[in-house]
Amino acid sequence: MVDVIIYIIAFLMTVPMFLTTVIYFLSIKFHQPVWKAVHAAVNWSTIFYIMAVILILDMTFDLHVIGIVLVFFLLLLGLFIYLQWKFNTEVKVTKAFKLVWRICFLLFLILYICLVIIGIIIEFM
């Protein structure tokens, strides 16, 4: 049973687009508004895109970037908290975290697509 769970998690880390699609369609089934389904898919699949990019960089280029990703995430969060404090004088950490999380989704989705294409090109050369 433990092996099955490990294989499912490994598959979702390898192909996070499948997870995003499944979450999106399940959310549409349970939530009527499309935007809630999109947000649910983004929120639940971002961590898998981050892990997939880290693993692809590690396996393809032998780069260990976990620390860099964490520092980038914290710097981006600090930047948005600072900007909230500067413009609104009221800091909402949850709002800043959601914004950083969505930016990370977009960034790591693009990185994932680019790295998959680069990996395919490297494999065939």
What does this molecule look like?
The protein is mainly α. The chain has one domain (2-124). The protein is built from 5 helices and no strands. Helix 1 packs across helix 2, helix 2 packs antiparallel against helix 3 and helix 4 (66-88) packs antiparallel against helix 5. The longest helix has 32 residues, at 93-124. It is globular. The termini are far apart. The model has no long low-confidence stretch (mean pLDDT 91).
Feature tags:
89% helix; mainly alpha; 125 residues; transmembrane helix; UCP030092; transmembrane; globular
Short account of what is shown:
By secondary structure, this protein is mostly helical. It contains five helices and no strands.
Mean pLDDT over the full residue set? 91
Oligomer: single chain
| β-strand number | 0
**Which class do the helix and strand fractions yield?**
mainly alpha
Work out the helicity level.
over 70%
| Total count of domains | 1
What is the succession of H and E elements?
HHHHH
**Helix count, per DSSP?**
5
User: What's the gyration radius in Å?
Assistant: 17 Å
Q: Pick out the low-confidence regions.
A: none
Q: What is the global morphology?
A: globular
The biggest beta sheet is recorded as:
none
How far apart the termini lie comes to: 39 Å
Percentage beta strand = under 5%
